Amino acid sequence: MPGDAPLTVAVIGAGIVGLCAALEVQRAGHHVLLVEPGEPGGRQAASYGNATWINPGAIMPISLPGLWRKVPGFLLDRTGPFTLRWRDLPRHAGWLARFIAAGRDWERIGICARQRYPLCKHTVTDHRAYADEAGVGHLIRQEGLVYVYPDRTAFAAESRIWAMRRELGIRFSEIEEPELRRLQPELSPAYRFGARLDDAGQIADPGAYCAALARLLEARGAQRITARATGFVIDGGRLSAVVTDRGPLACDRAVIAAGIGSAGLAKLAGDRVPLISERGYHVVIPEPGVELGAGLMPSDGQMGVVSTPQGLRLAGQVELADPDADPDWRRADILLGYARKMFPGQAKRFETARIDRWMGNRPSTPDGLPCIGIASGSADIVHAFGHAHTGLTQAPATGRLVAALIDGREPPFDPTPYSARRFAR
């Protein structure tokens, strides 16, 4: 509570959400135990391989009206942006039904967009402040994000989405073909119209950024615990320790920010959350012959295309599969095919490049909202997981909300929509 003695807070997970939560909890004057079995910023983390965007306009859930008509095609087409392995269908059927229902009409989408916006609104400013404190301010870029379309008609087909952004005050600019050619001369002439989210940015190297934030936490007194959290010691609703594979860690509060590993911990804390892995892939093409300013999102591919220090990164795909299943590298090859389509002048260069392929697990709820809030089984445990495609964007606001909940302070915005209790109704 405000004004009380500092607490010992175990933050479970050192992905971007856990790191931002830890920074805000530490800023509030508490001692942080950062519990993570892997290296912060390592390849094992979803935070490592994302599309690098920090986007105030990331208000739309993945499930939109009409999606249900496309599901049979997704099951049959192994080359589309959304796929489900047949053998996993029985296990994921309940989640998929909720996912489709969440996007069944535009009224529900509008509600979801308004609930997502507070998590996205200040993302660039917040990340820039963190990066400056960590000595890696050069990693933050703010050159916008451009959605590219075959023509204005294709853009108009998404008019509801852009209207929702406009209603929330999210700035964007329409880009006609001559300006698009000027901004990105290497881009295929198949794309003749664009819409630029003016205030969006990117973190050029998310892995290096996460590692820098972890170092900042330690420099300010946080304790790194290289262990896997497996449970809690709770008596009468009060938390006394986090159980790990290296023994118990005494603490006053805990934050569950373990990404795809969060559902099991949340269950032990009293909440059943339908969390599955939307597995994503990326390819990085070194020395691609293309240098992007603003990131690109092709309307026909639904992926992020960005320049990074390592090369041109294309990140995307949704594969509903067991987190531990072997990667299907055909998903990465689909991304590489889009690189050739988008930048045909460099296609031969792409053929001979040493491509880096990566797969990671996005922790996803069916309704497009993360789980942030007090656990049902103990007021000493706070959920902070399930951010799916937008963990990088939503992490700072999540961290502020988590710190307020731990302190019992007035939250920066209404936490009700993100409560795990919504799945118990």
What does this molecule look like?
The protein is an alpha/beta fold and 425 residues long. The chain has a domain at 1-65 and 112-141 and 201-275 and 365-425: FAD/NAD(P)-binding domain. The protein contains 13 helices and 21 strands. The strands form five sheets. A six-stranded mixed beta sheet has the order 10-2-1-14-21-20, with helices on both faces. Strands 4, 15, 17, 18 and 19 form a five-stranded mixed beta sheet that branches. A four-stranded mixed beta sheet has the order 7-8-6-16. Helix 1 runs parallel beside helix 9 (206-219) and helix 5 packs across helix 13 (391-407). The longest helix has 17 residues, at 391-407. The radius of gyration is 21 Å and the shape is globular. It starts with 7 loop residues before the first strand and ends in an 18-residue tail after the last helix. The relative contact order is 0.21.
Keywords:
FAD-binding oxidoreductase, five-stranded mixed beta sheet, 13 helices, FAD/NAD(P)-binding domain, alpha/beta, FAD-dep_OxRdtase, globular, 425 residues
Q: How would a crystallographer describe the biggest sheet? A: 6 strands, mixed
Low-confidence stretches: none
Number of helices: 13
Q: Classify the fold: give the CATH topology of the domain at 1-65 and 112-141 and 201-275 and 365-425.
A: FAD/NAD(P)-binding domain
Overall helicity? 25-40%
Major sheet: arrangement of strands: 10-2-1-14-21-20
| Gap from first CA to last CA | 29 Å
Shape: globular
Q: What would CATH call the architecture of the domain at 1-65 and 112-141 and 201-275 and 365-425?
A: 3-Layer(bba) Sandwich
Q: Tell me, what is the CATH class of the domain at 1-65 and 112-141 and 201-275 and 365-425?
A: Alpha Beta
Organism: Bosea spartocytisi
InterPro entries: FAD-dep_OxRdtase, FAD/NAD-bd_sf
Keywords: Oxidoreductase
Domain FAD dependent oxidoreductase: 9-405
